[in-house]
Amino acid sequence: MTTSTATYTVKDYKSDLKPVWCPGCGDYSVLSSITKALADINRDPHKCAVISGIGCSSRIPAYTNCYGFHSIHGRGLAVAAGVKLARPDLTVLSAGGDGDGFSIGGNHFIHACRRNVDMTYVVMNNRVYGMTKGQPSPTTEPEWDASAMAPPGGTGMSPFHPLGVALAAGANFIARAFSGDPNGTASLIAQAILHPGFSFVEVMSPCVTFREEQREWKNQVHPQSTETTTDPAQAARNLTTDDGLNIGIVYKGARIPYQPGHKTTANVSDLEKEFAL
């Protein structure tokens, strides 16, 4: 995986499609951060693949000028892993949300961390199901009941901790960013792409349509108080004081990425013949 001999700018990674997110959605900024990260590391757009599941944030592949695939709900990581294993020369990113990634896709998330395929997973966490109009998600606070879709008084269930689960399952790079800091988010995504193995970046991306109180995140987020570590035990200890608003790289591991020894020998024309009617 090498940088290009050509020089690309952010616009080279953006498609002509106009995003259709709600006004104020943090995903606009995350899209810009992803394209900036790719431009910063100067990867050929045709050597990049962006894979997603279902949800507001999963629209991102259509808004990039890279190869893309919009898969079914919760299955983006499975498809992304298949792409990377078949084409290890590609830079592979998977994009999704907290519902897609941690509910129906939770099992794939855990095993993607475990397998440690060399790809990057960017999750836009707004702690709500935005596309389906405001139900609690796996990361929603137990007492949140501001939506008519939520149980009175909240769900009462402990929220899913993406960074802790990623660490326990074996992710090789773990970080949290905030969409209100697009340059900082782009930097973290670029570092995630460059780090070998499975990299996970949780991006706090407000859904101001269904969770207007998240406008205050810009005043609440702060740099993490602990240093980035290469020791998983220390990272686990650091996460015990995580308030969900810490920004930075939690962990950088040294596991060797998984890549099977066999190589694909069939060419595209041979594969097309198998599907000919």
Describe the overall structure.
The chain is 30% helix and 16% strand. The protein is an alpha/beta fold and 277 residues long. The protein has one domain: Thiamin diphosphate (ThDP)-binding fold, Pyr/PP domains (Rossmann fold, 3-Layer(aba) Sandwich). An eight-stranded mixed beta sheet has the order 2-1-3-4-6-5-8-7, with helices on both faces. Strand 7, helix 8 and strand 8 form a beta-alpha-beta unit. Helix 1 crosses helix 6, helix 3 crosses helix 4 and helix 5 runs antiparallel to helix 8. The radius of gyration is 18 Å and the shape is globular.
Topology:
Blueprint: H1 27-41, E1 48-52, E2 67-70, H2 76-86, E3 91-97, H3 98-104, H4 106-115, E4 120-125, H5 162-169, E5 173-178, H6 182-194, E6 199-204, H7 217-220, E7 222-223, H8 232-239, E8 246-252, H9 268-274
- Compute the CA-based radius of gyration: 18 Å
CATH class: Alpha Beta
Shape by Cα distribution: globular
Beta-strand proportion: 15-25%
- Specify the CATH architecture: 3-Layer(aba) Sandwich
Mean of residue pLDDT? 93
The CATH topology is given as Rossmann fold
Strands of the largest sheet, in order across it?
2-1-3-4-6-5-8-7
